[in-house]
Design brief:
Elements lengths: L1 E5 L5 E5 L6 H12 L6 E5 L2 E2 L6 H4 L6 E6 L3 H10 L10 H10 L1 H10 L1 H8 L3 H29 L6 H26 L11 E6 L2 E7 L7 E3 H6 L12 E4 L3 E15 L2 E10 L6 E3 L1 H6 L3 E3 L4 E4 L4 E4 L13 H14 L6 H4 L9 H8 L3 H12 L4 H10 L4 H10 L1
Parallel strand pairs: 1-5, 7-12, 8-11
Antiparallel strand pairs: 1-2, 3-4, 3-5, 6-7, 6-10, 8-12, 9-10, 10-11, 13-14, 14-15
Pfam families: Asp_protease, UBA, ubiquitin
Protein name: DNA damage-inducible protein 1
Subcellular location: Cytoplasm
């Protein structure tokens, strides 16, 4: 195993030694490396003196552990070494002295930046409490690693007919597979651990520049009330199309703006919007307009192509996206709600005003999925051999049209 030894002159040595070796043999090795006689050496591990006759493994010394080497030649040196020693919990006996000694040794700091950059940064800082917490955390990690190794060793010698032991072995094998998979991902697919930034492009809505979120998973193009007001479009809001968008959460639909100009690149296109009471989301370019204007999302070139390729606009880098847009938790909740709104029950014919009043999307959707007629259609399709849930979903999808639902189910 490999251990680290800090000498009285503040040098850090990395030594390869077997865990079954005695402390006396370790001192002999250090005598060769440091020219400090074996009799003058005193080794400390976790603040306790290591006796010559004891074995390293018995003392609990493991891979990567730190051993302090002090000299018995003078009381001054001994006092200084005590300042650099560690408590049983891994914290420094004198954290200020420990920090200053390490700071003054440029060679030690260079090695720490390579081996443990987090600890090196804390040593260069001014927070001694954080230094102590980090040292304790390192000690806890070493203790956990030792316990895990002890448990693995115990399982090797466990009774093969012990059901509980076999369950632990199975869990250990499973966890080993997970850890190996994680390490392979870190090596071969590190980008998988990075945050994925959503797709935004620069657009102009009614002459006002905006950062538009491109979402092919939302059926409707959406604009917030505050954004519509800023773009001078709120006066065109048709409140007959009020309703509730249901998804992960729910958001109120204030109405619809039937047509307004948007500018993508250098070309203007007509666009319609659902207006939502969603303060955390300004403008979402949904599937309805992506289809209408023959858009394609080119992730190889990182551009949005519009009009069959007549215009290409680049997706924004993370630094160009406003920070509040990157609050993905709240934003995606709103986006999910808007996507859920895009169901056949929300089509224009379901929103069309009847009589002298307006009909909400919620009411329209409820009318499709309730009543004896709907149950009769469900029963008829269930008799054809389809599951009830699948039938209900198909009827919802086709706005209660029995023939279209049946065609969809047979085609699936």
């Amino acid at each position: 195993m490999r251990i680290t030894v800090m000498t009285p002159d503040e040098q850090i040595l990395t030594l390869e030694i077997d865990g079954d070796e005695s402390v006396e043999n370790l001192k002999a090795l250090l005598e060769v490396e440091t020219q400090v006689s074996l009799q003058s050496q005193q080794l400390l591990y976790n603040g306790k003196e290591m006796r010559n006759s004891e074995k390293l493994s018995v003392l609990g010394v493991n891979e990567g552990d730190l051993v302090m080497m002090v000299s018995n030649s003078s009381s001054t040196t001994s006092g200084s070494s005590n300042d650099l020693s560690l408590n049983p919990d891994g914290s420094a006996v004198n954290p200020a002295a420990f920090q200053q000694q390490l700071r003054r040794d440029s060679n030690t700091m260079s090695q720490l930046f390579q081996a443990d950059p987090e600890l090196a940064q804390v040593i260069l800082g001014n927070d001694l409490n954080r230094l102590q917490d980090l040292l304790r955390n390192r000690q806890l990690q070493r203790a956990q690693s030792r316990r895990q190794k002890d448990e693995e060793l115990a399982l090797l010698y466990a009774d093969p007919f012990d059901v509980e032991a076999q369950k632990k072995i199975e869990a250990a094998i499973r966890q080993k597979g997970i850890d190996d998979n994680w390490e392979a991902a870190l090596e071969h697919n590190p980008e998988g651990f990075a945050r994925v930034v959503m797709l935004y492009v620069d657009m102009e809505v009614n002459g006002v520049p905006l950062k538009a979120f491109v979402d092919s998973g939302a059926q409707s193009t959406i604009i917030s009330k505050s954004c519509a007001e800023r773009c001078g479009l709120l006066r065109l809001l048709d409140q007959r199309y009020k309703g509730i968008a249901h998804g992960v959460g729910q958001t109120e639909i204030l109405g619809r703006i039937h047509v307004a100009p948007i500018k993508i690149g250098t070309i203007f296109y007509p666009c319609s919007f659902m207006v939502l009471d969603a303060p955390n989301m300004e403008f979402l370019f949904g599937l309805d307009m992506l289809r209408k204007h023959q858009c394609s999302i080119d992730l190889k070139e990182n551009v949005l192509r519009v009009g069959g390729g007549e215009v290409s606009v680049p997706f924004l880098q993370e630094k160009d996206i406003p920070q509040h847009f990157l609050d993905e938790g709240r934003f995606l909740k709103e986006a999910s709600s808007s996507a859920a709104q895009a169901t056949p029950g929300s089509k224009e014919k379901s929103h069309a005003p009847t009589g002298g009043g307006a009909q909400s999307s919620g009411a329209a959707r409820g009318g499709v999925t309730q009543g004896p007629d709907f149950e009769a259609k469900v029963a008829k399709l269930v008799e054809l051999g389809f599951g009830r849930e699948a039938v209900i979903q198909a009827l919802k999808f086709f706005d209660g049209n029995e023939e279209q639902a049946a065609g969809y189910l047979f085609g699936g």
